[in-house]
Amino acid sequence: MTDARGPAPRDGAAPARPVPGTPCWVSLTVRAPDRARAFYEALFGWEFRPGPQRLGPYARALLDGCEVAGIGTLSADLRLPVAWTPYFASADADRTADAVRSRGGTVGVGPLDIAEAGRLAIASDPSGAVFGIWQASAHLGQDVTGVPGAPAWNELTTFESERVAKFYATVFGHTVQPEVSTDLDHVTLSVAGRPVAGIHGVGNGLPRDRGPHWTTYFTASDVDDTVDHVLHLGGQVLERPHDGVHGRTATVADPEGARFALVQASR
User: Fold this and answer.
1) Which end of the chain lies in a sparser environment, N or C, as judged by fewer CB atoms within 10 Å?
2) What pTM does this model have?
3) pLDDT tens, 55-67?
4) Residue of higher predicted confidence among 81 and 1
5) Distance between CA atoms of 155 and 51, rounded to whole angstroms?
6) Whole-angstrom Cα distance, residue 207 to residue 216?
7) How would residue 208 be classed by pLDDT, with cut points 50, 70 and 90?
8) Of 172, 164, 151, nearest in space to 211 by CA
9) 41: three-class secondary structure by DSSP
């Protein structure tokens, strides 16, 4: 699990703009923001400060002073699930939104300006999985990745990978790298030769009540301990800690039901 934004800037240097096609931000939509903030503050050590309010109450989460995620409140006119949503960087959100529509996807929100931060759209791919588009201006995206409490990876679970992978490759310019396996339907999306996200096809194994969806992985210093902490804070464990292709991982949900995954930090 690597990040394609390039190395962090040196002190005094301007922060690097996210490379188009790279997941550059994750945002949680909830009905009870105070409860969500308390949960993630206790779990990951996040602090919060107000963000742009264009789509309703919104706060940015900070980890040691670095922005890592956002939490927004669902309004009655936004038909979005309680869920974590990854945002992919775009040089032109309007053109990207047009590409989404032309390839069989749907644009549900925007594109619209979010104050001076940038331009946003929320869309779904042809299978129905929701994702965001972010054209950065003042807000470039997450400041850090891969450290405990920060996003590390995003993976799409869908019916089958081939068709939907072509959609993301066309819309964002991803290179598609299939898994070399006869019994595993998995591809990796890459930007400039670096992996940025995965797509896992599970066929009829996809839960009917869930549908195709993106999952954000957050780094944990110890996955087993963090899972215990999730339970203590009122969350749920959906997939117990286990060792797999990404290392030691687990899938959990916060008290409102928003799913996310944990991945063990490299030692």
Assistant:
1) C
2) 0.92
3) 889 999 999 999 9
4) 81
5) 26
6) 18
7) confident
8) 164
9) helix
Distance CA 8, CA 14 (A): 10
The CA distance from 210 to 23, in Å, is 22
Q: Which long-range contacts (CB under 8 A, 24 or more apart) does 102-107 make?
A: 103/167, 103/170, 103/171, 104/167, 105/167, 105/171
Q: What is the largest CA-CA distance in the chain?
A: 51
Return the minimum-mean-pLDDT range out of 8-17, 132-141, 177-186, 203-212: 8-17
Pick the closest to residue 173 from 5, 18, 19, 16 (CA basis).
19
List all residues 6 or more positions away from 125 whose beta carbon is below 8 Å from its beta carbon.
Answer: 100, 105, 131, 156, 158, 164, 167, 168, 212
- 253 by DSSP, 3-state: which? strand
Residues 6+ apart with CB under 8 A from 13: none
Cis peptide before 111 (omega within 30 of 0): yes
Residue with tokens 């959609």: 167
